[in-house]
Amino acid sequence: RMQNSRSKPCSCPSLKMREVASMYFTMVAAFLVILVVALQGSAPRQTDFPYKVPLDPQGLLELSWNVSYPEQAVHFQLLIRELHFGLLFGMSDRGEFENADLAVLWSDGHNSYFGDAWSDAKGQLHMDSQQDYQLLGARRAPEGLYLLFRRAFSTCDPKDYLIEDGTVHLIYGILEKPVPSLQAINVSALHGGLQRVQLLKPNISIPELPRDMKTMEITAPDVVIPSQETTYWCYMAELPEGFPKHHIIMYEPVVTAGNEALVHHMEVFQCTAAFDSFPHYNGPCDSKMKPERLNYCRHVLAAWAMGAQAFYYPEEAGLAFGGPGSSRYLRLEIHYHNPLVFKGRRDSSGIRLYYTATLRPHDAGIMELGLVYTPVMAIPPGEDNFILTGYCTDKCTQLALPAAGIRIFASQLHTHLAGRKVVTVLSRDGRERQVVNADGHYSPHFQEIRMLKEVVAVFPGDELITTCTYNTEDRSRATVGGFGILEEMCVNYVHYYPQTQLELCKSAVDPGYLRRYFNLVNRFNDEEICMCPQVSVPEQFYSIPWNTFNRDVLKSLYGFAPISMHCNKSSAVRFPGEWEKQPLPSITERLREPGPRCPPAPGPQPAAPIPLKLGQLRRD
Amino acid sequence: RMQNSRSKPCSCPSLKMREVASMYFTMVAAFLVILVVALQGSAPRQTDFPYKVPLDPQGLLELSWNVSYPEQAVHFQLLIRELHFGLLFGMSDRGEFENADLAVLWSDGHNSYFGDAWSDAKGQLHMDSQQDYQLLGARRAPEGLYLLFRRAFSTCDPKDYLIEDGTVHLIYGILEKPVPSLQAINVSALHGGLQRVQLLKPNISIPELPRDMKTMEITAPDVVIPSQETTYWCYMAELPEGFPKHHIIMYEPVVTAGNEALVHHMEVFQCTAAFDSFPHYNGPCDSKMKPERLNYCRHVLAAWAMGAQAFYYPEEAGLAFGGPGSSRYLRLEIHYHNPLVFKGRRDSSGIRLYYTATLRPHDAGIMELGLVYTPVMAIPPGEDNFILTGYCTDKCTQLALPAAGIRIFASQLHTHLAGRKVVTVLSRDGRERQVVNADGHYSPHFQEIRMLKEVVAVFPGDELITTCTYNTEDRSRATVGGFGILEEMCVNYVHYYPQTQLELCKSAVDPGYLRRYFNLVNRFNDEEICMCPQVSVPEQFYSIPWNTFNRDVLKSLYGFAPISMHCNKSSAVRFPGEWEKQPLPSITERLREPGPRCPPAPGPQPAAPIPLKLGQLRRD
């Protein structure tokens, strides 16, 4: 629009700016072509890209990356083992190919091109007006073609994905035929898929490891991976008899070579000390042959998911295992993800524990924050964005935490299938202070234990507020809280030290207020909803006619009604005190969403005052 | 952050870009200093700035401006009759000096400076990182100093005000002493004030006027303006006996010279034809001496407010007056705003009507959209942002509008003192299509009839949805709908042609559903609210304990409950049909908020694909 006013000096800056910019960019482009050619030889070192995941189940595409927090940018190295006529790589909200932010390499059969593109709601590709996937180099090697590119976390291009902490859904697509142009690429016909990763790995310095450190591998013994998409494999291991108390101070994955794309995640659980022994087992976790007692092996010792690296405990703490009062029995669970249903693949993956007999100053502990597993917390059907909140109140932390506080250093977020976002915020004196852990693209299929970027100190009187966002658009009846896979949870397992007696700090709406809600809905809508006391809470939720009023009032209820607190030493033992009909924590000051940090736009004038020659101004 | 990575070619573009930009801006700054000096002579023509308002009550600051829609920018000419040591001019949400966007001219006693600044929530001034008030010139003249500057509607600087349609609150402040720097200016100690204007006047071509056009001045006869801040003056005029039907095709203000800063707004009303005659009157509208019958003179013929220009009817229509069935009596109402309580000022301002006996094809009409004046629509106390919505339903427009539709060409928004925003949207088949009129900075103290930028065609079956936003933070009890100044309204008077019988198309919540709400609140809160049927709706609202649940559920009620429609020929006569318990119009597609149009940020690479020298890509 500014180009129209040629004669006005005021509008020139932008115009000239563009000309200058255009010339400049031409230079940059020429330089880059040269760079690409020049790089055909020098290989970047492996240590330049410490993180690595296969993108596709065959491992034809392999992504390595690093994160520069000073630059607020990610550098990607993409290895394409068999390049056909190009490929798409990018990011989108939940792994869909629509509304995605893409780097595209394509060939028209003669020449190849690279560009930053975006796909619209129909999957149509468009060149981005602002090119934010910056190509740094391309290099042929015996194993394939390497592409190197850089992407700032935030570009301020509204078409671009904002790279945030937590899960990022990476997508890839392979071009099998030449395409005349970017616009000609048909996204729906692509061979492609998605891979979830934590792109912004925290930048944590590795603590010094003691000399007497030993290792123990908890690995599956030569499993034949079932030829089905999803298998949860269970294997029981046991510690030596009389194994004394040790501290686990680190663990890392052991993945059988060649199976990197199949081993999706693994966890080691310790069984309860309530039983003296557990049967041996090596088979699918959902098998009818699996002994019932294995369900009592749920205390997490270690957890790994694809793309994760070794997990280090902070130098002041270790996770206790062995010794009296702890079970010798461990359960290894491996999630094999085999969408191409390979047959006869053998695997001996697992987790290698690093432990020491020289106990560190503190035992680490795990605490459950969020919602109690109860049907009183429910989500109406057909919601795209329904929020439930669980509270750990000041009253509970006052009672259960030591005066010096605890330090949370890692967190594992957990919901069932409807979960889309999870966040825990620390509040003190009614003011939100710090995000403990947040995942705005949370997936129930990608539940890692994540080291926090910053250790969070929690003191007596602090509040920990965990908020989960659910999508129930595909459901026709209410989703209630509970243990079932079609029921929901909202949990943050926080890893902290020093260990306290507080194992559970969770809440649910007061059941009396929920009864008032059922009554109100009944009367307001003139409907015959059975209010007979023998009808269960889920049945009452299932019978509600879900009009906008009943939905809104349920939200209002959850935002208003007092809560029942579970401030527990173990899942069944509460701390002494009154925990029913507790007031909701009130928040007087919220944390501000960090705005995207954009490069400054070219202002039409400099940010300095303009001197005027007006002479002396008049005095009164 | 990018400066840290000197060795990486990828991060250079931004860095170099800044250097180039910096050099460039230095040049521009030098150029502007020269420009300012050069302009000390050539006077811009008056027609360059067609709109004019005094900023202060003494008229020492006079603002003229023009609007360039192609450039999306406003050019300002500010005349400072008595310059002391500088001045502030700017815009803010509602005329406050905090969080304001300011152009500042200041002198340290020796030199003068101009800059774009912003004030924070405490009123402290800061230089803007992006200078968007672009100084175009400064010129001394016998009458004072002229400053010329330009401002784009949207700058994308988050500190800047976004200039939108509707009311803009301009603020000014005069520096009485030299200041060493911008930061040293103490905003709270300034002599300053605010002036409301419609900055973005529509760009309407003036229709051709007929040769037989006559004029009639409805002016107050030599009024002595009372020496008080606010006076509404009433004067009764009458048309000649036997005056036949004419069309008013234009009107303009007649403001007595020297009183430009005192005459705030003026309206001419026609009295009802129900009475044969009306008494003469010339005095304050709130005087006890004012005859009661003057309250029956409420049909708007013409309305003007400060900063407005002549009002032209579209060439196909005129406003009928005179002739049988219409009253000869007119009431002129003038709002004098005299904050400096000048004494003895004489005034003969009023409105000049341009009319013709050659009737145009269509009579123009006025229709009331929004909410019925009833206490069932209420706003809880202490709300900063409470929304009420009034509907003109498809059923009513289906019945009352001609098949060819009507054309809305002007609109006057109306609320009482708590109103902060008003918007009317046209919806067809459940999809929002067009904003009829919107004011995001609406003030009840500045109610103009505004020409629409685009004439809006409304057809049978269309819906017109009027939404008002209220602030009741200063109130301790509920604000109910009604005629009183402390009760509320939500109305859009739309001016349209051809005139139809439909005078009122408004709604209110179904009173039965509101009773259910009172019951529900009563039961839910276990409170003793008197539900006796003899208690009035306002009394019931006043007795509600306003916790978050009761507030939320009232919002849910208004968003869910069926409505009672007033689809009326006149305020008491409904069109035939069933108008009670009507369903709320459902909207399946909303208009998108237009995002701010920013100048494109300098991308690190051009928006063209980068050619790669990879050779032929492999074929399968």
Automatic annotation (TrEMBL), chains A, B:
<comment type="subunit">
    <text>Homotetramer; composed of two disulfide-linked dimers.</text>
</comment>
<dbReference type="GO" id="GO:0005615">
    <property type="term" value="C:extracellular space"/>
</dbReference>
<dbReference type="GO" id="GO:0042584">
    <property type="term" value="C:chromaffin granule membrane"/>
</dbReference>
<dbReference type="GO" id="GO:0006589">
    <property type="term" value="P:octopamine biosynthetic process"/>
</dbReference>
<dbReference type="InterPro" id="IPR020611">
    <property type="entry name" value="Cu2_ascorb_mOase_CS-1"/>
</dbReference>
<comment type="function">
    <text>Catalyzes the hydroxylation of dopamine to noradrenaline (also known as norepinephrine), and is thus vital for regulation of these neurotransmitters.</text>
</comment>
<keyword id="KW-0847">Vitamin C</keyword>
<dbReference type="GO" id="GO:0005507">
    <property type="term" value="F:copper ion binding"/>
</dbReference>
<dbReference type="GO" id="GO:0004500">
    <property type="term" value="F:dopamine beta-monooxygenase activity"/>
</dbReference>
<keyword id="KW-0503">Monooxygenase</keyword>
<dbReference type="InterPro" id="IPR000945">
    <property type="entry name" value="DBH-like"/>
</dbReference>
<comment type="similarity">
    <text>Belongs to the copper type II ascorbate-dependent monooxygenase family.</text>
</comment>
<dbReference type="InterPro" id="IPR028460">
    <property type="entry name" value="Tbh/DBH"/>
</dbReference>
<comment type="pathway">
    <text>Catecholamine biosynthesis; (R)-noradrenaline biosynthesis; (R)-noradrenaline from dopamine: step 1/1.</text>
</comment>
<keyword id="KW-0472">Membrane</keyword>
<keyword id="KW-1133">Transmembrane helix</keyword>
<dbReference type="Pfam" id="PF01082">
    <property type="entry name" value="Cu2_monooxygen"/>
</dbReference>
<dbReference type="InterPro" id="IPR045266">
    <property type="entry name" value="DOH_DOMON"/>
</dbReference>
<dbReference type="Pfam" id="PF03351">
    <property type="entry name" value="DOMON"/>
</dbReference>
<dbReference type="InterPro" id="IPR000323">
    <property type="entry name" value="Cu2_ascorb_mOase_N"/>
</dbReference>
<dbReference type="GO" id="GO:0031418">
    <property type="term" value="F:L-ascorbic acid binding"/>
</dbReference>
<dbReference type="GO" id="GO:0042421">
    <property type="term" value="P:norepinephrine biosynthetic process"/>
</dbReference>
<dbReference type="Pfam" id="PF03712">
    <property type="entry name" value="Cu2_monoox_C"/>
</dbReference>
<keyword id="KW-0479">Metal-binding</keyword>
<feature type="compositionally biased region" description="Pro residues">
    <location>
        <begin position="596"/>
        <end position="609"/>
    </location>
</feature>
<dbReference type="GO" id="GO:0042420">
    <property type="term" value="P:dopamine catabolic process"/>
</dbReference>
<keyword id="KW-0735">Signal-anchor</keyword>
<keyword id="KW-0812">Transmembrane</keyword>
<feature type="domain" description="DOMON">
    <location>
        <begin position="59"/>
        <end position="175"/>
    </location>
</feature>
<keyword id="KW-0325">Glycoprotein</keyword>
<dbReference type="InterPro" id="IPR024548">
    <property type="entry name" value="Cu2_monoox_C"/>
</dbReference>
<keyword id="KW-0968">Cytoplasmic vesicle</keyword>
<protein>
    <recommendedName>
        <fullName>Dopamine beta-hydroxylase</fullName>
        <ecNumber>1.14.17.1</ecNumber>
    </recommendedName>
</protein>
<keyword id="KW-0127">Catecholamine biosynthesis</keyword>
<dbReference type="InterPro" id="IPR036939">
    <property type="entry name" value="Cu2_ascorb_mOase_N_sf"/>
</dbReference>
<dbReference type="InterPro" id="IPR014784">
    <property type="entry name" value="Cu2_ascorb_mOase-like_C"/>
</dbReference>
<dbReference type="GO" id="GO:0034466">
    <property type="term" value="C:chromaffin granule lumen"/>
</dbReference>
<keyword id="KW-0560">Oxidoreductase</keyword>
<keyword id="KW-0186">Copper</keyword>
<keyword id="KW-1015">Disulfide bond</keyword>
<dbReference type="InterPro" id="IPR008977">
    <property type="entry name" value="PHM/PNGase_F_dom_sf"/>
</dbReference>
<feature type="region of interest" description="Disordered">
    <location>
        <begin position="585"/>
        <end position="620"/>
    </location>
</feature>
